[in-house]
Design a protein that fits this description.
Blueprint: H1 15-22, H2 26-40, H3 51-56, H4 59-72, H5 79-88, H6 93-100, E1 103-104, E2 107-108, H7 133-137, H8 141-157
Antiparallel strand pairs: 1-2
Length: 160
């Protein structure tokens, strides 16, 4: 694969994330993705991205994150992969989660139950631990539907 150019509107450093993805260290890469996103949005203290942070998230940085994930997973993971699936299921978050494996047998998974390898379903990662619903509120579905609608809208506006 060709090298992803690490562009950022805010000076974010993607070298560690790229190294983790090159090494197929998917869980660590997911955690680093969250760290980077929180840093860019100045939301480290809160530990999650709110709707305002998502609406203002720089397109250049969102695109860089996506290109890294898509490129180094050979098209299996990435925000654009998730967005495509979200649109394929009529923007139904629950159906998307069923398809990408964030829900199994009608139950929402906790972050620790995600699959951090290439046996995961298409679009399974990044897992979005920075949403805030995993650790404090139970499972992925608790607050994520509204959150993902904001992210999907931002991805669309950024043409990702």
């Amino acid at each position: 694969m060709s090298e992803v150019v690490l562009l950022s509107d805010v000076g974010a450093d993607y070298t560690k994330l790229r190294a983790l993805l090159v090494a197929s260290q998917w869980k660590e890469a997911d955690e680093e993705t969250g760290r980077i996103m929180l840093d860019i949005a100045d939301r480290e203290k809160e530990g999650y991205l709110d709707s305002d942070a998502i609406k203002k998230f720089p397109c250049t940085d969102l695109r860089t994150l996506d290109e890294l994930w898509v490129g180094y997973s050979k098209g299996q993971f990435g925000f654009s992969v998730q967005r495509r699936i979200y649109e394929e299921v009529g923007k139904d978050f629950t159906k998307m989660c069923d398809r990408i494996g964030w829900r199994q047998a009608g139950n929402w998974l906790n972050y620790s139950s995600l699959i951090f390898d290439t046996n995961a379903p298409l679009g399974h990662l990044p897992g979005g631990g920075w949403i805030g619903s995993f650790s404090g509120l139970g499972g992925i579905g608790v607050m994520s539907s509204w959150w993902y609608s904001y992210l999907a809208s931002r991805l669309e506006k950024c043409n990702i």
